Amino acid sequence: MEKQRLKDKTSAREVMEVKVDTQSEDPDSTHGDTRPRSHDRDPRRINKSLKVMFEDVIAEPSSVRSFDKVWLWSHALFEVSRLWCYRVVSLLLAVPASLAAGVLFAVLSCIHIWIIMPCVQLLLIKMRWVQTVWGSILNILISPFFASTGKCCGRINIHLAKDKETRKNTCV
């Protein structure tokens, strides 16, 4: 019985792999250049934690068993529903999310390239006097304030103790 169940699982997995392989890139396809060139869509393994299989979610212990056909149909329905729900949700969300991410990265890149780095280079290269003045302000005004605050607060000790009587009296 156990061997039959393992054989059925293996054959169901092989059928699913064959179906996935037949849906992969076809050289005679009419999709043109819209499909990604590589077969592996996660080459850097960014989403390796999302590889959820049926056995990771549903597992029957040896003490209780459903019928073998129920197990196979459950496995098939799990895989099909997971695949098609992902496809529908990605169809609805992938394009707007990609557009938003592209715009965000473009704006951040533009700000970094055209505003932040020129200002940093201006301060580091051409305006040495600003570094000197800023260092003096830090040494004269800000450093003594934080040093004295640190010395004042440095001797503060906090002890936390659990007092059972205080808890009984406060819980009314």
Low confidence ranges: 15-31
Radius of gyration, Cα only, in angstroms?
A: 32 Å
Class by helix and strand content? mainly alpha
> What's the average pLDDT?
77
How would you characterize the overall build of this protein?
The structure is a single chain. By secondary structure, the protein is an all-alpha fold. The protein has a domain at 69-146. 68% of the residues lie in helices and 0% in strands. It has helices at 2-22, 54-57, 68-126, 128-153, 164-170. Helix 1 crosses helix 3 (68-126). The longest helix has 59 residues, at 68-126. The radius of gyration is 32 Å and the shape is flat. The two termini are 61 Å apart. The relative contact order is 0.04. The model is unreliable at 15-31 (pLDDT under 50).
Outline the fold blueprint.
Blueprint: H1 2-22, H2 54-57, H3 68-126, H4 128-153, H5 164-170
Helix pairs in contact: 1-3
How is this structure best summarized?
The chain is an all-alpha fold and about 170 residues long. Helix content is about 70%, strand content about 0%. It is built from five helices and no strands.
Summarize this structure as a short list of keywords or feature phrases.
172 residues, mainly alpha, flat, single chain
